[in-house]
Amino acid sequence: xxxxxxxxxxxxxxxxxxxxxxxxxxxxxxxxxxxxxxxxxxxxxxxxxxxxxxxxxxxxxxxxxxxxxxxxxxxxxxxxxxxxxxxxxxxxxxxxxxxxxxxxxxxxxxxxxxxxxxxxxxxxxxxxxxxxxxxxxxxxxxxxxxxxxxxxxxxxxxxxxxxxxxxxxxxxxxxxxxxxxxxxxxxxxxxxxxxxxxxxxxxxxxxxxxxxxxxxxxxxxxxxxxxxxxxxxxxxxxxxxxxxxxxxxxxxxxxxxxxxxxxxxxxxxxxxxxxxxxxxxxxxxxxxxxxxxxxxxxxxxxxxxxxxxxxx
Amino acid sequence: xxxxxxxxxxxxxxxxxxxxxxxxxxxxxxxxxxxxxxxxxxxxxxxxxxxxxxxxxxxxxxxxxxxxxxxxxxxxxxxxxxxxxxxxxxxxxxxxxxxxxxxxxxxxxxxxxxxxx
Lengths: 312, 117
Fold this sequence. Notes:
The complex is a heterodimer.
Chain A: H1 3-9, E1 14-18, H2 26-34, E2 43-46, H3 58-67, E3 72-77, H4 83-95, E4 100-104, H5 125-136, E5 153-156, H6 168-178, E6 182-184, H7 191-204, H8 206-209, E7 211-213, E8 215-218, H9 222-231, H10 239-247, H11 251-267, E9 274-279, H12 284-292, H13 298-304
Parallel strand pairs in A: 1-2, 1-9, 2-3, 3-4, 4-5, 5-6, 6-7, 8-9
Helix pairs in contact in A: 3-4, 4-5, 5-6, 9-10, 10-11
Chain B: H1 3-16, H2 64-73, H3 97-102
């Protein structure tokens, strides 16, 4: 059982973070990216060609993380590989003891720097989850045996801030039926939409069936907020938030404040299992945020059994 | 394409924008063809739907799945939208889904495919 799975099973507050994309520099470059926040995280996400830009593959990065003593969550998107390649990557990663998977659709190739590439989408995210679940039961989609069956902890993504809002929780429930046991929710700058999603998740039983982990994105400048708003598919930033940071005397500090407020808000929602933290460029921001929110380190959470500080 | 497939295409392309995947799921997707989604998603909208409901890939187009979900809510069999549809059998492109329905060819699943009911 992975550390993440164990923490979730025991109801401990979990912290995951995203590793910045990596193109070169060996294991040192990997270490450099997680070192500042390592004491706080249960697991670190190895992303899969984010925003449709090629980077070191999630399998390779997940193995590197493992070698460096950090538990990986291997992300897999449906955009770049057909079902054979996806199954091969799940089996290959499992060979190295990688159990945490996060299955998602993936941004379209048109969001990237090689928009002329062929998009694959041979499977969609629900089908990918079901495929991973089949492998955890000991066989490929074809029915061919995998012996012994790999132990997998399968997760997914859902976007509380994308229409149709009244369908997002239902869709997450479909993914649970397919085999998802945790959700790293897409970054959501709209408090009311995140609240709505979590409230519906609690009411529908989703929060009991899977661990809900909202994502918080830290940026350094209002320009980054504007970039995210305009160029990252599925994420919009309310204009008043951007303006607030633009007009602040210290806009970098204000951006950090905003991230802390959103994290505090997400943490206050009854039904969430933890937080997923993303920081563009400045990884130390994650450590600062954890300190600021008084989130105990992983070791402290493990010894004291820290839960979300909200009374449900 | 065989003669039956040609007839099917002639009927369904103008009405549903049918792409002739040969394994029609219109009934469970609010009579909206999911193969018109640029990502050909068969199980709901991706996270890239824009706040105004348009498609991440084609901003001039309304998200196919937004239409599918809305329309399915008005159908007596609205629950079917939550079926988890298996991966496309890529051998069936350009064959008649009518024939594949009658012969139950479209009910064949990969042997390892299983989802909770």
